Amino acid sequence: MRDLVIVRGGGDIATGTIYKLFKCGFKVLILEIEKPSAIRRNVAFCEAIYDCLLYTSDAIYDTQKQVEDVTCYLAHDYDEAKQFLMENKVTLLIDPEAKAIDYFKPEVVVDAILAKKNLGTTKEMAPITIALGPGFMAGKD
């Protein structure tokens, strides 16, 4: 998919990056864990997952998180994620192992997990791999 950036993590710092990427015209897919954490939760796209957890049942639910004028939509599988991306929606997918990287094959991967150590991101994940926060050194895996 042209102009796709996959961002690992949807916390508050990641959300600022995602917001800017989206405003610059990129399609953005966020990969998150099942129970993410964020310090400033009101400005974190990962909160779409918590909205989902509050209302889970056998019913179909629609979950999203708006930060300023950008809304992020929680996809439940690759097909739904692909559809949201084609509709130019910031999309979040629960994918702790980042398997969507192999499926979507983006040109750019951004690690914005901010875990103080590398949780599996390698520079081979995409032609352009960017890491934010502690635990990374330029030119090293």
Describe this structure in words.
It is a single chain. 24% of the residues lie in helices and 24% in strands. The chain contains 4 helices and 7 strands. The chain has helices at residues 12-23, 47-54, 78-86, 100-104; strands at residues 4-8, 27-32, 64-67, 70-75, 90-94, 108-111, 128-131. Strands 3-4-5-2-1-6-7 form a 7-stranded mixed β-sheet.
Radius of gyration: 14 Å
Q: Into which percentage range does the β-strand content fall?
A: 15-25%
Number of strands: 7
- What is the helical fraction, as a range of percent? 10-25%
Distance between the termini: 25 Å
* Sheet of most strands: 7 strands, mixed
Question: Given the C-alpha coordinates, what overall shape results?
Answer: globular
Order of helices and strands: EHEHEEHEHEE
Order of neighbouring strands in the sheet with most strands: 3-4-5-2-1-6-7
Annotate the secondary structure layout.
Blueprint lengths: L3 E5 L3 H12 L3 E6 L14 H8 L9 E4 L2 E6 L2 H9 L3 E5 L5 H5 L3 E4 L16 E4 L10
Parallel strand pairs: 1-2, 1-6, 2-5, 4-5, 6-7
Antiparallel strand pairs: 3-4
Features:
141 residues; 7 strands
Brief synopsis:
The chain is α/β, with parallel strands linked by helices and 141 residues long.
